[in-house]
C-alpha cells in the first residue's frame, strides 16, 4: 500500500499538470492507496484556496476518491462525518477537529461560527473556554 502526499491527490482531482496528473491516475489505477487525514485536510485547503472549489464540489470529489475500492483512510466513518459536516456548512478543518475530538467532553474554541454550527448540526459540546 502506498501513502500519498497532498500534491498527488490534488493532481488526481484537478488534472492541472498533465505529466503529474497522468502519474497520479496511473498510481490510483494500479496500487492500493492510503490517504492520511492530514492530506485530506490540506487538499481541501488547496482546492478551496488555489482552485476556488466550493464545499459541494470538494465533498463530491472526496466521496469519489475515498469510495474507490483500493483507497483506505484512517477511519472511514470519521471521514464520512467530516465530509457531511462540511457539506452542511462547517469549515472543513473545524469538522475534522470536532470529529477527532469525539471522545472528549467538549471542544473549546473562540470561534463563534464554529460554536453556532456545532449547535445546529450536532449534540457535541463546542463552547468558549
Class by alpha and beta content: mainly alpha
What is the overall pLDDT average? 97
Radius of gyration: 16 Å
Largest sheet: 3 strands, parallel
Assembly type:
single chain
Q: In which range does the helix fraction lie?
A: 55-70%
The separation of the N and C termini measures: 41 Å
Tell me the fraction of residues in β-strands, as a range: 5-15%
Shape: elongated
Task: Tell how many strands the DSSP assignment holds.
Answer: 5
SSE topology:
Blueprint: E1 2-3, H1 6-14, H2 18-30, E2 33-35, H3 37-49, H4 55-66, E3 71-73, H5 76-87, H6 92-100, E4 107-108, H7 112-121, E5 126-127
Parallel strand pairs: 1-2, 2-3, 4-5
Helix pairs in contact: 1-2, 1-3, 4-5, 5-6
Structure commentary:
The protein is mainly alpha-helical and 129 residues long. It has a domain at 2-74. Helices cover 60% and strands 9% of the residues. It has helices at residues 6-14, 18-30, 37-49, 55-66, 76-87, 92-100, 112-121; strands at 2-3, 33-35, 71-73, 107-108, 126-127. The strands form two sheets. The chain has a three-stranded parallel sheet with strand order 1-2-3. It has a two-stranded parallel ribbon with strand order 4-5. β4, α7 and β5 form a beta-alpha-beta unit. It is elongated, with a radius of gyration of 16 Å.
Keywords:
129 residues, mainly alpha, two-stranded parallel sheet, 5 strands, 60% helix, elongated
Summarize the structure.
This protein has 129 residues and is mostly helical.
